[in-house]
Amino acid sequence: MAFPRVAYGTPRKLPKAKDLDGRVVVLDIAFAADTGNSSFDKVTGRFIEGLGDRLAMWIDHHDHVRHAEYAADPRFVLATKAQHPACPEMVTPERVAAAGKVDTICCHIDFDGICAAAKWIRGGEEPYPGADADARAIDTRMGTPSPRAAAIDRALRARHRDDGLKGIVVRFLAGGASDTGLWQPIAEAASELESMEEEAKRLSRGYRLAEGVALVDASARRGSYDKTHLLLLGQERARIAVVYDRTTVTAAARFDSGVNLLELFGLEGGMPTRVSVPRSRLRDVLERLGVADQLPTE
């Protein structure tokens, strides 16, 4: 099994194209939205231009109005979240073969992206039976993933900046998810999420409810917290949960809610049911949600 170099990125923070070796495949990284701090032209467009002919394939399942510009380029396999709730199911043996030799995989930093990378390394074969279904359950937060996938997801959320751990997860999955030596550090990292979940639970007691929106200020956190868990706790109370702190405003709704936050907030791309914008847009977010009276006094 050929093991290419693996690099990691997010829609708003991609590695420099010149730092990636040879031919590159990009997996589960959405085109950047114009949020004030980033834009398609400054981030995604610049990255695509920098890779040039070295871009072997780009596979993604996040909505973006600029997908249409790449419809005629067979290297771009782009779908919406409704069409494909997770990315690994889009990584097929046929697409891996069509891309040819790849030297570097650039993938998203969550379970969805890393599972897609491992599946690519395996020639389009699932790391274990049910891995695609686990990715759908985790990325949509609907359904119940297997204990193995849930632990990996928890580990990655607990140490989301730890590229070393990400590399371990890639190797564990690419090897068929059976190496007990690789599993040990993953399990240890997963256990670290407990304290972050406890802080999320504490913060959740501050949720305010208004017009189908649950709003909480996480600026006064006492330590690291799991934002995904905090948002899910808010969604138990209202149709849309909003978490804000000193730098960022994040809104989320259930995958099956029918809510399209991209349209609501005037954004071009990403997940329709989870968006993040700079704190400077808090007033605008609350106005668009019809709860401007909940704007904090500062």
Account of the 3D structure:
- The protein is an alpha/beta fold and 298 residues long.
- It has two domains: 5-191, no CATH class; 195-294, Diaminopimelate Epimerase, Chain A, domain 1.
- Helices cover 37% and strands 17% of the residues.
- It contains eleven helices and twelve strands.
- The chain has a five-stranded parallel sheet, covered by helices on one side. It has a five-stranded mixed sheet with strand order 7-8-9-10-12, with helices on one face.
- A hairpin with a 2-residue loop joins β7 (208-210) and β8 (213-217).
- α8 (193-204) crosses α9.
- The mean pLDDT is 94.
Question: How would you summarize what this structure contains?
Answer:
By secondary structure, the protein is an alpha/beta fold. The protein has eleven helices and twelve strands. The chain is globular and about 55 Å long.
Write the layout of secondary structure elements.
Blueprint: E1 5-9, E2 24-27, H1 40-51, E3 55-60, E4 63-64, E5 76-78, H2 93-99, E6 104-108, H3 111-121, H4 131-140, H5 147-158, H6 163-174, H7 180-191, H8 193-204, E7 208-210, E8 213-217, H9 227-235, E9 240-244, E10 248-253, H10 261-265, E11 269-270, E12 274-278, H11 282-288
Parallel strand pairs: 1-6, 2-3, 2-6, 3-5, 8-9
Antiparallel strand pairs: 4-11, 7-8, 9-10, 10-12
